[in-house]
Amino acid sequence: MNIGIDQIGFFTPNKYLDMVDLAKARGIDPNKVLTGIGQQQMAVADQTQDIVSMGINATLRYWDRVDVRRVGLLIVATESGIDQSKAAALFMKQALHLPGAVRAFEVKEACYGLTAAVMIARDYLAAHPNQTALVIGSDIARYGVSSSGEVTQGAGSISLLLSTKPAILALRAEHSNWSDDINDFWRPNESPFAKVDGKYSKEVYLDFFTKTFKTYQAQTGFNGNDFSAIVYHLPFTKMGFKANQLALANLDKPAQTMLSEHFIASKQLAMRVGNIYTGSLYLSLLSLLERATLTTPALIGLFSYGSGAIGEFFAGELQAGYDKRLSPADDIAMLDVRQRVSVAEYEALFELAARPPKANQVLTSDELPGRWYFAGTKHGVRQYRQQ
Ligand code: CAA
Question: What CATH code would you report for 4-167+326-386?
Fold first, then answer.
């Protein structure tokens, strides 16, 4: 039985910061950010966009094509949680009019969370083949103003509908994991900002990629030449470039050329959005599918990484007609219509959004009509509204 991705939706808030503006303000050579880090723009979430509103907005990108009565499972993956107890999935379930019978919860393991949700959903659908599963990764990457990680911030959400008739990507059953208790990146309860050992985190990422990619090939008999593309978790696009260089070693020349070109296609959205943590790998997949000319069947490798840390390499087979499920022009338009904010505006928005709003304060949004937003709290309960 084929199980995999049937629908994909992406959302990022309506404001961004240009990375050259940020580099100049911080006294950094812009080329360090543009080529050394590989980022051009960074999404900025104001106080009215959080993981719930972004997740709803990402899902609404395709929701009118979905039979909500068949959705049996809803999992939200995040490391920017808005409550220690209640799952973000329950706020979203309400907004998306999902039936009461849906199993809805939240999962966490840094940026790996959405892959964990995908794997749970795959097993769920094997047991319930007539149902579908909605999995959403939604995050705001915050390291802090003037921190070393500042240039790798971002905000956004990816929503995936999985089914037993996947129109986009059928997931293969094999997978290769590596996990270890390490401290490369974490966010303690008392801090709105991530703590990171930046250089160490890059080393661990590459080490876990090497281990899982090698083991995957040994287990499956595939080798690098069999892949049409490999997509990566992209905390910043240079990170994925480095992993892709490792993947290219010892491949045939045509395979090297193809994997290099397809990596370039896969990083285009992330370059303009920044790190969206859980959704980042799937944003790379979306970018690849929207920009590369891929002939089916095509084997696509996926490398998921979550600090703390866990890595997973797995793969999927691209389905004929996959492009009918994509809206590349709408994704570009969403980026193009964003407001460019100055560094001073970004700093003010950032500091405000990182703290809880005042009790019972009603927040209004300047998002486009139809988009959901966080409208403040009422008697301590978070309120969500549609613009
Ligand atoms: N022109 C061009 N390139 C330049 C340059 C210039 N003038 N100056 C420096 N560079 C290059 C450097 O050579 C370097 O390239 P290489 O990596 O190829 O050597 C690159 O720019 C970055 O330089 P530094 O490493 O010195 O940069 P930094 O000290 O400012 O830190 C960072 C970069 C570690 C990524 C930091 O931004 C950070 O901590 N980010 C958050 C952590 C992170 O994203 N880690 C990734 C792995 S963990 C993960 O994947 C989970 C997750 O989502 C967080």
Answer: 3.40.47.10
Q: Does residue 202 line the site of ligand 1, with CB under 6 A?
A: yes
Dist CA 287 CA 1 (whole Å): 27
Please tell me the residue having the least CA distance from ligand 1 atom 30: 148
User: Could you tell me the pLDDT band of residue 149, with boundaries at 50, 70 and 90?
Assistant: very high
Choosing from 150, 175, 233, 290, which is the catalytic residue?
A: 233
Element (H, E) at 241: helix 237-248
Residue with CA at minimum distance from ligand 1 atom 14: 36
Instruction: Concatenate the DSSP letters of all residues of 207-230 into one string.
Output: HHHHHHHHHHHHHH---GGG-SEE
What is the chain's length? 387
Residue nearest to atom 16 of ligand 1 (CA): 36
| Ligand 1 atom at minimum distance from 280 CA | 53
Query: Structure tokens of 295?
Result: 């002939």
CB of residue 203 inside a 6 A radius of ligand 1: no
**Max intra-chain CA distance, the chain:** 63
> Is 190 designated active site?
no
Beta bridge partners of 373: 385
Neighbours of 303 (CB within 10 A): 26
Is the peptide bond prior to 297 cis by the omega test (within 30 degrees of 0)?
yes
| 170-322 CATH choice from 3.40.50.300, 3.30.470.20, 3.20.20.190, 3.40.47.10 | 3.40.47.10
- Of all protein residues, the one whose alpha carbon is nearest to atom 6 of ligand 1 is 32
Question: Which DSSP category does 111 fall into?
Answer: B
Determine the Cα–Cα distance for residues 169 and 360; give it in Å rounded to an integer: 44
Q: Identity (one letter) of the amino acid at 200?
A: Y
**Closest ligand 1 atom to 205 CA:** 47
- What is the Å distance from ligand 1's center to 265 Cα? 21
pLDDT tens for each residue of 275-311: 999 999 999 999 999 999 999 989 999 999 999 999 9
| Contact criterion met (CB below 8 Å) for 123 and 164 | no
Q: Is 262 a catalytic residue?
A: no
Residue extent(s) of CATH 3.40.47.10 domains in the chain: 4-167+326-386, 170-322
Q: What is the pLDDT of residue 139?
A: 98
